[in-house]
Amino acid sequence: MRGFLWAVVLVWLSRIALAQPEQCVSKLSIHLIGSYTEGARRIIAAKPRVIKVLDPQASAGMREAMRDYKQRHPKGLVVMRVWERTSNLRYRLQDDPVQSADDFWNRVLQPAVNALPASDRRLVDYLEGPNECENTPCWDSVEEARWFGRFWERLAERIARAGFRPCVGSIPVGNPPGHISEIRAKLEAFIPALRAAKRWNGVWSYHAYSIEYTRDVGVEYWYSLRYRIFYEFLRERYPDLASLPMILTEAGIDRGGNPTSDGWRARGDAAKFQRWLLWYDAELQKDRYILAATLFQIGDPGGWWSFDVEPVAQWLADVIANRPRCLRNPVLNGDFELGFTRIAGETIANGWAAWDGGVVNPLWPGSAHFWQVAGMPGSAQRIISGQIAGQSFRGGVYQRIPVVPGVPYRLRLDYLSAGTTDPGAGQQFRIGYDLSGGTDSTSPNIVWLVFTNTPSSSWRHVDTLIVPTGEWLTLWTGCGIYWPVATTYLDVDNVALWALPMLWGKVTLGDYAGDYRCQRVYVQIRKSDGYTVWQGQVPLSLDGEFEVPYEAGLPAGVYTTAIRGAHWLQRVVAGVSLPGDVVEVTLLNGDVDGDNEVTLFDFGALVQAFGSTPDDANWNPNADLDGDEEVSLFDFGIMVRNFGMVGED
Hints:
Elements: H1 2-17, E1 28-32, H2 38-45, E2 50-54, H3 60-72, E3 77-81, H4 97-115, H5 118-121, E4 126-128, H6 142-161, E5 165-171, H7 180-199, E6 203-210, H8 217-220, H9 227-237, E7 246-253, H10 270-285, E8 290-298, H11 313-321, E9 340-343, E10 346-349, E11 353-359, E12 369-374, E13 379-386, E14 393-402, E15 409-418, E16 428-434, E17 446-452, E18 460-466, E19 472-480, E20 488-499, E21 503-509, E22 520-526, E23 532-539, E24 545-548, E25 557-565, E26 568-578, E27 581-587, H12 600-609, H13 633-642
Parallel strand pairs: 1-2, 1-8, 2-3, 3-4, 4-5, 5-6, 6-7, 7-8, 21-27
Antiparallel strand pairs: 9-10, 11-14, 12-13, 13-20, 14-19, 15-18, 15-20, 16-17, 16-19, 21-24, 22-23, 22-25, 25-26
Helix pairs in contact: 2-3, 2-11, 4-6, 6-7
């Protein structure tokens, strides 16, 4: 009877809960400028839907980024923007828009794409034109919008005939300006450009910044979500254009475009920006026509410091890859490979803050110094506390980190300390944490894991388990010297917090070439007598990883786990020690109807969906066994190979 009931549950889950979600991949991505940084590499490895590159014809880093992205993600989309040769180019309302479009193509776009090697030209999917009305009349009046529409109607054709797809508009945040009626009148005048975009298999674009840095839909409707006004108009007046895709080719936090004062870093901390991005991604998921939002910017920290995404690059990569919490390190730049920033004359790792305990020996006054050094392993954050030249103080770096109360975390790091062996020098080497999330370096709440006056002189490893009591935890490092008879320093590297899961797993979906992030698995945890103590569906990461979170609250013990997918047969693994064990399984494909067998019923369901794609009425995502978004003979081949197979119970 239990087997029959479980089969009924599996059928229901496969038809409802495990159906492939429509919006299954994060829509966040990056706008690359200048350098192909370590952070950008990590984000591209997570396979975002779209990336945008600036002037790849003039930048070896941008060409490398395109190549890396397309090699990893052949179906991913590349948007190219050309900035070179545009600064002194300006068209007026009195100019002919068609001739102006031809001129822009001949003088700006064509030379840029021709400068790319043929192999790199093939990597570009969408080509942008004038950026944010810098070269053209645009949105100040209906007449300008009409001119701009005719300009883009022609430029879209020129782009398409050269072998690219047009990315039309590059509309600045807050545009078209005016009340709803004014916005609609200007969009009406721009319709020829949208028809050209559709004709040539293109998209249009908006620059979606939050001006107020809010998560209020009512406010953001006029800024980062302003595109919804556009689509409301299209659905009402031009329904044939209402599904025209849009790429938000710039996105993030801005106020007035000042590189040093208006971006997210100048107007909040990383945690605030991360919360906003998660909220914004959730809003974008509601709008099927939005392909992606390429966050501005990564690769140019000098020119656009306050907008630089590098400090949160690993976090963003984890979000895009949909990695489970137990595989996400909430410490920003814990390996110190995502850049350093000059602050008050010191070089401090991105994501970290410096504290200076001040002079401790007035005979040898000094101030704290922080800079990057080469170390083993990797690059480290070095804290200098004294030199023969004469300095005497306490200082270090710290970071306040969001955590989940009650969930155990494994804290790991490496450190190397060096200095004098003179016991009278008053050296200190300190590494610890504060469960209260405080920012006072003298707080009695700090638990010091490293608390010594003697240098290690070689790399040492710290590995301990901690349980946060609140939503924030602060990591502290520091060193100091009273009598500066020698240089005293502390190198810290590879700082990581790993949340302990109840169960961590990795699934290989047999005969599947689709995106794992678009699949979920159903996990059941049973006691030795077969009684189910936990069950639920969990999402997969890019690499097939999943977790049952620690909050499942199961008592420690040995259990049996059952794992199945939407159209994959169940596997059962016994002897799983919880919490914290790891399970790896490969699932057999072909169970279209979800009854845990590959039979004639599955064959019939596949026949019914044969030849369909996601836009067809007879589309059945569970019949698309290989994940190529088409039910074809390849899917029949998979079913034939596994016909008659039965899942474990």
